[in-house]
Please model this.
Amino acid sequence: MPDTPSPNHGFPGRLLVFEGLDGSGKSTQADLLGKWLQSKGYRVFFTEWNSSELVSSTIRRGKKKGLLTPTTFSLLHAVDFADRFERKILPPLRAGYLVVCDRYAYTAFVRDAARGCDPDWVRTIYSFAPRPDRVFYFRVPVAVTLRRKLASRLKMNYYEAGMDLELSDDLVESYTRFQGRLKREYERLSTVDGFRVVDATRSVEAIQAELRADLKPLLVKFPTVERLTHDR
Amino acid sequence: MTDRTYGTRLPRMPEEALVGKLIVVEGADGSGRTTEVTMLREWLEVEGHAVVDTGLRRSDLVSEEIDRAKQGHTLASTTMALLYAADFADQLENKIVPALAAGSTVLADRYIYTLMARAIVRGASREYARHLYGFAVRPDLIIFLRARPEILLHRSIGKYGSLDYWESGMDLCLSRDLFESFFLYQDLLSKEFDWMATEYGFEYVDANRMPEQVHQDVQRLVAPLYGARFVAPRRSPRRPPRAVSGVPRRAASA
Model:
């Protein structure tokens, strides 16, 4: 029987979420997993955090001018997520796709908590976002993400380093402390929300194999495009 | 510090106490709200209080996005509610809180209650709306100018010559007829204001009357905030002119 509704949100699709610190390798893994699922004949839809156009210019402008407070920062990201959810996540979920999300509401939970917002309040404003069918949390020491960041010579941005919190005048020091806060919050959520913890210090191949194995049971009854066409 | 807000801690609340008074004036378009805010400001300043006024959708941060979204009518209700909340938070933190900390009186021409009512009639739950605005500073006084829908209608027509698309809730598709939609929408809103009145403690003022009469009631409510008692000036023996067909007019009775 195709389109068995998910026990978590009641839609025929499945919601697969990738969470973790910047530089934990989750985007690479999400990408590889999406390709594999597609090759298996599943209908896959891929979406990233901060991909909506609606308020990204405001967020950018606000960040540049230093206009954002923790509350407005949080609410603007919530606007962005709500828009993304409404347009990019909900429709494929209702249409029976495997929706792969590179970051979900949990990213907001950890960032906003690190900025001092009331965690219960943040949860409530995201209450429109349903519980995913799987959350992969890429666990990695902050020192590793810092090394990857420095090696790739990517510019460390102001907010990613939590410079707005004035933890330290030094960018690297601030980054380390802020990412440490995020990690602590992720670790806390991993128990509360039942994340599947992935040891992200291993090789790309080893991690990918683990993800694929983990998803197999979840996909047993999930229809491929081929099966759907034959059914109808 | 949650005692000055509706339950949610506001990060970066200033250390000093918010000693200023926050006075909110709520009411539909046509309730005489803006007229009353102007009169109240004038009076408070004459009494020697520094007044900062604020309204909805006046911040620089997202007003552009709100206008754009309104033109397209494309945003889902949750997204829109959050966008308004972001705009409100910006004003609260950058304008209202600093003014209160500096000891000014903040006069708000509408506040979270209008935003909540609008969000709820567009599909948000009451719980959601209440939590969303949990970070708002509790006002010292919430004045609600209540006028009958027929009065609102007449004033709106008198002022703009027609009804406003948004104030008539046309985006809700309650009716294709503008007038009918207006009445249905105002009815939905007032149901929400009713429960809020109890929960948040509104002071209702009968706004079906002339601005001077409304203003006296408001003054009577506001004076105790400053430890004063308002004594209405002696009435002139002449009768003030009546409003013509419900259109408000500043009575030139003096």
